[in-house]
Design goal:
heterodimer; A: 474 residues; alpha/beta; Rossmann fold; six-stranded mixed sheet; 18 helices; 43% helix; B: 239 residues; alpha+beta; D-amino Acid Aminotransferase, Chain A, domain 1; six-stranded antiparallel sheet; four-stranded antiparallel sheet; 8 helices; 37% helix
């Protein structure tokens, strides 16, 4: 079924939520939504569970029908045998949609469970009810405070939206992004995706303001052509990052042709993703690396990068990685060199690009300002600056890093080019583990993509650069 | 509308015989009718016929076995190249029949295809197949015997846009070979893109086609031509 957009809109942005079947001692669902800004109700008939719910001052009812007023979302956490009854109640109440945490359906492979799922699906399809799941974590909405993990943030603003076929990875992308200073506007854990499938969500996200960037974890799709068409549209409008798990290299089938025998699942998928314009990733950290560059760097298709490392060895290492990833590390103009020559410490340092800059900027922040002024004026640099930041002394003098970040932010505003913070172990990153972590966190929270290795930073930025260069070519 | 007629006839004929695999001659006739550049191949049912076809085409010629039961002709000794005169054609025919019937004794043999030997070029493969998830897809890669080992191929979903064809040709690892190594002429990449786009259009126009291999295609510095072709139809129930 093609899901009704208005109903899905209600379910994903609910003004009222009913949690059905939450249980003590933790009351996970009701607790997750303790700061929810809409009206929260509970449906629970187990006399042992009701007192705990009432203690939380959440009105409890014995069926969805009894809940007063309009209901936008039902979160269903009942045992699977009860699930069809709750679906029936939700349909009767004409709620916006149902998010079903309950599992034990077709994913088990048991005939009875498959039959049970079919019952639910048929009821939803017949009545046009958007069902999220089953077997999923459901819906997170940052602004409204609808959450499926108590670590999910609440507040205004959104950098990205997340769709995940796996609850674990939905939480992983969601919380991992937060930790890197990104605001996740919404996350939809789609589970078995039997009524609302990945194509419904993709089509929804095309016009969703809460998802200026989209991250996805998928294992497979239900309707290939529809998914491809939706993804293409989505990627032409906003950056889409897709991490796919569980692809196989098995040949398609016994085939008469070479083409068919080479058309493995992963080969066709990879081609489809490239064709759609989405950015493929291969793991959680890979996904987060790319997201950080998308969220924290301005859209930029330039390839000419300036690389600022703290030592000679690191200046070679960072150059290797950026060139390998497809960037240019161009020479600067003579005018730039003339200006740099006036103040740059060349004993144990170099400014040819890459920069070996410790002796020039370690203690004199104003020299970083001068370098950035030169780079901003140099037309050879159109792809941004990657800079190795040091953690030494961050515990005693955090203002030095803060001042550097201010200068970098200024450069970014002035040039609309990415600034990538490199904080690899060894090199300039030293000191106690908690100091390193605190320094990295400071950089993330200040709105910069920060990477624990040159390679990861260069590869993430390269994929983002190639996305924008494709977008600009459309 | 003549092109449709030829294609329709070939498809109808194969189906009426319960075949989904078109012979090389049928595949090429279909492709020619659809405006795809292939080497002209003609069917010969005995040695004398092979000689007379060769005489008409001019030497040297290539001879290939035509059998609905043999998918990989060279594996059974069913391809001979560089036949320079009528004597060579005659003896090649006899040897091929002897060899094929010993290696593939149960295979039905319809005869051989005789065709001009194309000027050698850079070998590439252009193909199409039907993906269970995404439907018709196109493939491009460097051709020859290593394609199945190296798997250096690119895929896209049908229909292709010109941008897709451009990327398909350029994203294989072997691109430097296509661009020309050691002073050799490179391949006409635009001709390969055009070929990909016209096959994509063909697949869209003729949903009866389930699989298609042009393997190899000889790519020249100016143009490209499919030297061998194989088309597999969907079984009638699938369409």
């Amino acid at each position: 079924m093609v899901v009704d957009r208005d109903r899905l809109e209600r379910a994903l942005n609910p003004k009222s939520v009913v949690v059905v079947g939450d249980k003590g001692p933790g009351y996970m669902w009701l607790s997750n939504m303790s700061e929810y800004t809409g009206k929260l109700y509970s449906v629970q008939v187990d006399p042992n569970e009701i007192p705990g719910i009432e203690e939380k001052n959440i009105p409890n009812f014995s069926s969805v029908a009894e809940v007063p007023g309009e209901v936008d979302l039902v979160v269903c956490a009942v045992p699977r045998q009860i699930a069809p009854i709750i679906i029936g109640q939700a349909i009767e109440k004409q709620v916006g949609g149902v998010s079903m945490f309950t599992s034990g359906f077709a994913e088990t492979g048991e005939p009875d469970a498959i039959e049970l799922q079919k019952k639910i699906v048929d009821a939803c399809v017949e009545s046009g009810m958007p069902l999220v799941g089953p077997n999923c974590m459901g819906i997170y909405n940052r602004e409204l405070g609808v959450k499926f993990s108590n670590q999910q943030e609440q507040g205004q603003g959104s950098d990205l939206g997340v769709i995940s076929q796996s609850g674990t990875h939905g939480i992983g992308i969601s919380l991992g992004s937060q930790r890197l200073g990104m605001k996740v506007g919404r996350t939809i854990s789609i589970g078995n995706a039997v009524v609302c499938n990945e194509s419904d969500y993709i089509e929804y996200l095309i016009d969703d303001e809460k998802s200026p960037i989209v991250a996805m974890y998928l294992e497979g799709v239900k309707d290939g052509p529809r998914f491809f068409a939706g993804l293409k549209k989505l990627a032409q409008k906003k950056p889409v990052v897709i991490w796919r798990g569980g692809g196989t290299d098995a040949g398609a089938r016994a085939a008469h042709s070479h083409t068919a025998s080479l058309a493995t699942d992963t080969a066709v998928w990879d081609g489809m993703i490239r064709q759609s314009g989405a950015i493929p990733t291969e793991s959680l950290e890979d996904t987060l690396d790319v997201l950080a560059a998308l969220v924290h760097a301005p859209a930029c298709a330039g390839l000419g990068t300036a690389l600022v490392a703290m030592t000679g060895g690191q200046s070679v290492a960072i150059t290797d990685q950026f060139q390998r990833a497809g960037f240019d590390v161009p020479e600067l103009s003579q005018k730039s060199y003339d200006t740099l020559g006036e103040f740059f410490v060349t004993i144990g340092g170099s400014y040819r690009n890459p920069f070996d800059a410790a002796s020039t900027i370690r203690s004199e922040t104003e020299n970083l300002e001068k370098i950035l002024e030169v780079l901003a004026e140099d037309s050879n640099i159109d792809g941004g600056v990657a800079i190795e930041l040091t953690t030494a002394g961050f515990d005693k003098e955090p203002e030095r890093l803060a001042a550097q970040l201010d200068l970098l932010a200024e450069y970014r505003t002035k040039t609309d080019q990415p600034i990538v913070a490199m904080m690899p172990e060894g090199g300039a990153v030293s000191g106690q583990a908690e100091v390193v972590l605190a320094a990295r966190t400071k950089v993330s929270e200040s709105g910069f993509p920060v990477y624990p290795s040159f390679r990861r930073g260069a590869e993430a930025l390269a994929r983002v650069q190639s996305y924008w260069s494709w977008r600009y070519s459309l | 509308m003549t092109s449709l007629t030829v294609t329709d006839t070939i498809i109808t004929q194969a189906r009426s015989e319960g075949r989904s695999l078109l012979s090389e001659v049928e595949s090429k006739n279909l492709l020619v009718a659809e405006g795809i550049s292939v080497t002209d191949a003609q069917l010969a049912k005995d040695a004398d016929e092979a000689v007379s076809v060769a005489e008409t085409l001019g030497y040297p010629v290539v001879m290939k076995i035509i059998s609905p039961d043999i998918a990989h002709k060279s594996d059974v000794g069913g391809v001979v190249v560089g036949l320079a005169d009528s004597g060579e054609v005659k003896s090649a025919y006899d040897e091929m029949m002897a060899k094929v019937s010993s290696v593939a004794s149960t295979a039905r043999i319809d005869g051989v295809s005789v065709q001009n030997m194309a000027e050698p070029g850079i070998e590439v493969i252009v193909g199409a197949t039907t993906d269970p998830q995404f439907g018709p897809v196109m493939m491009f890669g460097l051709g020859g015997v290593f394609v199945e080992v190296l798997k250096d191929v690119s895929f896209r979903i049908v229909p292709l846009e010109s941008r897709d064809a451009k990327q398909m040709v350029r994203e294989i690892d072997a691109l430097p070979i296509l661009e020309g190594v050691r002073g050799q002429d490179g391949a006409d990449l635009e001709a390969l893109e055009t070929l990909l786009l016209s096959i994509s259009e063909l697949i869209e126009r003729r949903p009866e086609i389930a699989e298609l291999d042009l393997n190899p295609v000889f790519a020249y510095s100016n143009g490209a031509i499919a030297v061998d072709a194989r088309i597999v139809l969907h079984s009638q129930n699938d369409v």
